[in-house]
Design brief:
The chain has one domain. The protein is built from 20 helices and no strands. The chain is mostly helical. Helix content is 68%, strand content 0%. Helix 8 packs antiparallel against helix 18, helix 12 runs parallel beside helix 14 and helix 12 runs antiparallel to helix 19.
């Protein structure tokens, strides 16, 4: 799968950045870009330690929860990395910089106020983690996007490779066989993500990345890309995650429209999908395993089956409980830490990130996430209207739709893909600011 990184991952993330990226205030880079025959600057020609580290962080997002299950220290290492790089001037101004910066004090204050009636220290710890990822990561990632074209190529290659391995593990689990001791979750594939919903979302993102490169490759490399799409799509179905399926549909629609995909392109993709499915049937793949997973999940969510886990009625009960709490105290919230995340039964969380933010973090956290959502929605609409930022817009759309129907909250594996997408959004040259170390 490493061939992916070396040969075909060069997505619309980088395409947008190359076509419209500002000169970043770097005199040498200005000269390099002005002279088409000039050699790339040294910072673009080699991978720095910071770049390599971020490639590893992005690549391991599909198995982030698995890593943290072994050591919770990993989460703090990533946070420390963000803070350290920002402190040493490794930052550049991303799109919507004012919003990301404003969210930092809002989130911190929200965490303090929401912890008054429970635990200020625990709530503040969660708030600081979210503030670092939301408030600083877009700036740091933008710096590395500007610094090296290889960063995006290798980061996305690593992400797709690791996620595809996780998808293969998930498909094996559906046969009843364990993978490193991990088995399917009530007939739903976990992969190496440790949860079906995470596997489904990461598979959806991997497919979107591959779709942007399918028609830029040929021969064996294109076949490898198509097979990668097929494996991840099978894992997406096998995860039984309706939230992921819905979000994937939305993200794909945005990708096709923003990239101005032609009917011929869509037709070729459809034919390739049918051919791949037919090939799988010929070699004896049992697609019924996948369809039964989705059917069972639909029955659960709609209440047809009796397990009641995450059914519509259960989710409505959490929404009602959260709304009642908000009406009683719309300002402070119940606390941002996990001890206060339960609703009517003390354990089930609110499966809507905006409502959950208000319920746990109070009005300030809700305002912060509402501002972020509004900005991201604006950029998606802009991408569709102008035919730019196709992949970043598709990634954002996919994750936000997922967040509206899942237990999305402060998890790094959900927020960092958004921040990476934001780092690739087109920014007007006059608005770009580069950290001191790059000047």
């Amino acid at each position: 799968m490493q061939l992916i990184g070396e040969n075909y991952i060069h997505s619309n993330f980088q395409e947008s950045g190359t076509k419209y990226r500002s000169l970043a205030g770097n005199v040498q880079r200005d000269q390099d870009q002005a002279d088409p025959h000039a050699k790339p600057s040294r910072s673009d020609a080699r991978l720095t330690l910071g770049t390599i580290t971020w490639v590893i962080v992005i690549s391991t997002l599909p198995i982030h929860k698995l890593i943290t299950s072994f050591t919770g220290l990993y989460t703090y290492l990533v946070l420390g990395l963000i803070v350290a790089l920002f402190a040493f001037g490794k930052f550049a101004r991303p799109a919507g910089a004012a919003i990301w910066a404003a969210c930092v004090p809002f989130i911190v204050i929200a965490s303090i106020l929401s912890g008054i009636y429970s635990s200020v220290s625990r709530s503040l710890l969660v708030g600081l983690q979210l503030a670092i990822v939301v408030g600083l990561a877009p700036f740091v990632l933008r710096y590395y996007v500007n610094k090296s074209e290889k960063f995006t190529k290798y980061a996305l290659a690593g992400f797709v490779t690791v996620q595809t391995l996780s998808s293969i593990a998930g498909l094996v689990q559906l046969t009843g066989a364990p993978v490193f001791g991990m088995v399917a979750n009530s007939g739903r594939a976990n992969g190496l993500a440790t949860h079906p919903n995470i596997l489904g979302l990461m598979a959806a993102l991997a497919i979107l990345i591959c779709l942007t490169t399918t028609f830029k490759t040929q021969g064996r490399i294109r076949f490898l890309v198509v097979c990668t799409v097929g494996v991840n799509f099978a894992a997406l179905i096998g995860s039984g995650s309706l939230s992921s399926l819905l979000s994937f549909a939305g993200g794909t629609a945005v990708l096709l429209v923003a990239s101005r995909a032609t009917f011929r392109t869509i037709a070729i993709a459809a034919v390739a999908s049918v051919a791949l499915a037919a090939g799988g049937a010929i070699i004896g793949l049992e697609y019924s395993i996948l369809t039964e997973t989705v059917e069972g999940r639909v029955n659960t969510v709609t209440g047809v089956s009796n397990d009641g886990v995450a059914s519509v009625s259960i989710r409505q009960a959490t929404y009602a409980f959260a709304m009642e709490s908000i009406q009683n105290d719309p300002l402070s919230g119940v606390g941002m830490d996990s001890a206060n995340q339960g609703t009517y039964n003390g354990t089930t969380v609110v499966h809507n990130y905006l409502l959950r933010s208000w319920y746990q973090g109070g009005i300030l956290l809700f305002i912060s996430l509402a501002l972020i959502t509004g900005f991201l929605a604006y950029r998606v609409i802009k991408a569709i209207a102008k035919g730019i930022d196709a992949l970043p817009a598709a990634v954002v759309t996919t994750i936000i739709i997922f967040a509206l129907t899942s237990a999305f909250y402060t998890q790094q594996q959900y927020w960092l893909p958004i921040m990476l997408a934001v780092a690739h959004l087109i920014t007007a040259p006059s608005k770009l600011h580069v950290g001191a170390s790059e000047r």
